[in-house]
């Protein structure tokens, strides 16, 4: 027996050592990082068809001259002088050129440079508005303000493959519910004074905007809006249940996120549900269908007009509601693009779909979720026609919101909502740039704008899915051919399939107070 215990002890120690070695080696195991091409002093795209998102016109046979990351001239006659100066020539004959696209609702994490940034660039997404962040301490998982500023600077200098991060936010304001242990819960806006303190702290750190969430109390929200305005910051994010859309627009919230906004706000019975401690516990099939059946167009039109007057944009992220509607669909669940998603994240996505499928499979749930998805599309179209600015965003990498690759999915949703193809393109280019105070700097192809352009093989004005048919991308004046983009995709696929993903994810998530709090809730 003594010999048995001795042998067993040695075996357990060996197993523990092996597990520790697996974890440590996996954490340290290198991933392939996409390497930027050289930023040419001069780059000339010749003979292209420029999609002018300002006028809606197609400019045939135009050339684009780029110098040190900036567009310096466009037109049919710029090639001769440029060629004489030794510019790198890109033949754009037969190619449709659009401005680099924005995804206006994403979430970065520490491994984004290896796992998502190349996907954005390969998909023609040259800038993102990241909707997550940290407080005043670094985090092992979440991309914090310093990370995003570094990435933005490196991309602008042609030193990194990834999207630009023009603005940064911090941890969501959810009445304290998102605040991890070790921080003052009031920093989440549990009280009006806490909301003001948060503005002071984030303003001192150079945070551009504050993300609002559903459980932020009304008095804290109003205090937050006033303090943010005084500090030169703005609010964007979820519409808190306790605050009406009209009041939030009047208070200065710059954007409402997600397609449920109008479904909730345009239901007359929603006012009685605003103070519910757990709204989604009662979000049943019956209530979903009742919200659609009792939709009040006058109530909705009043909200549309308030948003249009205040300049409050709408980022519907229909991709997130598609999961609700298609969680049972085997084709949806077997999307071939899952090969680009790391195994741990892919597992979480499928578990999310399983949970939604379970809920949807009870008492007609699948029909009600599909009805909500389709009704949400209708509301986006109505909002657009009423003058509300609609912006393209995906919520990547939320479940089945593919980083980069999923933007075309969302553009197709906006097309289904009734936006014309040129207006869909505007939602992902010029309108996003205007929202971020980048008018004439981004989202357009004209002299003085930054050199972020996408070369397409087919015309997006005929079919918006052409935005996925990419021949090449110019990012900050750096040209990436189709071969370069394919290499980026292959590297991400290899990284995503690496055995080291499990220990990396486990360590970074478990060591993250933000993620521990999120999973605990």
Number of strands: 15
Main beta-sheet strand count, sense and barrel state: 8 strands, mixed
Instruction: Give the % helix.
Output: 40-55%
Low-confidence stretches: none
Q: Which structural category fits the helices and strands?
A: alpha/beta
Q: Label the overall shape.
A: globular
Mean pLDDT level: 94
Helical element count?
21
- Strand content is 5-15%
How far apart are the termini? 47 Å
**Measured on Cα atoms, how large is the radius of gyration?**
24 Å
Explain the overall architecture:
The longest helix has 27 residues, at 2-28. This protein has helices at 2-28, 79-84, 112-115, 117-122, 145-156, 192-204, 218-230, 245-251, 260-265, 285-293, 297-310, 318-326, 330-333, 343-360, 365-385, 407-416, 421-428, 430-435, 482-496, 501-510, 513-520; strands spanning 42-51, 58-67, 70-75, 88-91, 96-99, 101-106, 125-130, 164-165, 209-212, 234-237, 255-257, 313-315, 453-456, 470-475, 478-481. Helix 5 (145-156) links the parallel strand 7 and strand 8. The strands form 3 sheets. Strands 1, 2, 3, 4, 5, 13, 14 and 15 form an 8-stranded mixed beta sheet that branches. A 4-stranded parallel beta sheet has the order 9-10-11-12, covered by helices on one side. The protein has a 3-stranded parallel beta sheet with strand order 6-7-8. It contains 21 helices and 15 strands. The model has no long low-confidence stretch (mean pLDDT 94). The chain has 521 residues and is of the alpha/beta class.
């Amino acid at each position: 027996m003594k010999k048995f215990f001795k042998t067993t002890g040695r075996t357990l120690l060996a197993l523990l050592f092996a597990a520790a070695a697996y974890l440590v080696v996996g954490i340290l195991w290198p991933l392939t990082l996409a390497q930027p091409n050289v930023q040419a002093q001069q780059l000339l795209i010749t003979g292209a068809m420029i999609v002018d998102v300002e006028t809606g016109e197609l400019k045939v046979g135009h050339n684009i001259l780029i110098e040190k990351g900036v567009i310096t001239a466009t037109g049919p006659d710029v090639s001769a002088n440029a060629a004489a100066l030794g510019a790198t020539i890109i033949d754009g004959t037969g190619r449709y050129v659009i401005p680099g696209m924005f995804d206006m609702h994403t979430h970065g994490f520490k491994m984004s440079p290896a796992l998502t940034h190349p996907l954005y660039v390969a998909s023609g997404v040259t800038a993102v508005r990241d909707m997550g962040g940290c407080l005043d301490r670094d985090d092992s998982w979440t991309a914090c303000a310093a990370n995003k500023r570094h990435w933005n600077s490196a991309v602008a200098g042609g030193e990194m493959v990834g999207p630009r991060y023009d603005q940064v936010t911090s941890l969501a304001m959810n009445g304290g519910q998102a605040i991890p242990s070790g921080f003052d819960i009031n920093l989440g806006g549990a009280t009006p004074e806490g909301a003001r303190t948060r503005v002071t702290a984030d303003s001192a750190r150079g945070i551009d905007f504050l993300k609002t969430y559903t459980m932020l109390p009304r008095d804290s929200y109003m205090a937050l809006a006033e303090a943010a305005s005084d500090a030169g910051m703005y609010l964007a994010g979820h519409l808190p249940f306790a605050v009406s859309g009209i009041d939030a627009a009047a208070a200065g919230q710059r954007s409402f996120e997600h397609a449920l906004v109008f479904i909730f706000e345009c239901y007359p019975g929603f006012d009685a549900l605003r103070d519910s401690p757990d709204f989604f516990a009662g979000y049943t099939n019956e209530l979903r269908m009742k919200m659609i059946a009792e939709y009040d167009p006058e109530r909705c039109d009043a909200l549309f007009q308030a948003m249009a007057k205040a300049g409050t944009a709408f980022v519907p992220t229909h991709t997130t509601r598609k999961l609700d509607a298609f969680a049972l669909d085997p084709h949806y669940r077997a999307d071939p693009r899952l090969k680009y998603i790391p195994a741990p994240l892919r597992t979480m996505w499928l578990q999310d779909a399983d949970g939604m499928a379970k809920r949807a499979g009870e008492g007609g749930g699948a029909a009600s979720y599909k009805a909500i998805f389709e009704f949400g599309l209708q509301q986006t179209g109505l909002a657009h026609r009423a003058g509300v600015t609609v912006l393209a965003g995906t919520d990547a990498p939320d479940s089945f919101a593919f980083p980069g690759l999923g933007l075309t999915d969302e553009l197709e949703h906006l097309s289904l909502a009734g936006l014309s193809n040129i207006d869909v393109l505007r939602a992902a280019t010029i309108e996003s740039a205007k929202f971020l105070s980048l008018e004439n700097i981004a989202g357009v192809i004209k002299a003085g704008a930054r050199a972020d352009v996408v070369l397409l093989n087919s015309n997006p004005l005929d079919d918006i899915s052409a935005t996925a048919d990419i021949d090449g991308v110019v990012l900050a004046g750096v040209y990436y051919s189709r071969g370069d983009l394919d290499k980026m995709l292959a590297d991400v696929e290899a990284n995503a399939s690496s055995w080291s993903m499990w220990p990396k994810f486990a360590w970074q998530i478990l060591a993250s107070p933000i993620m521990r709090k999120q999973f605990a809730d």
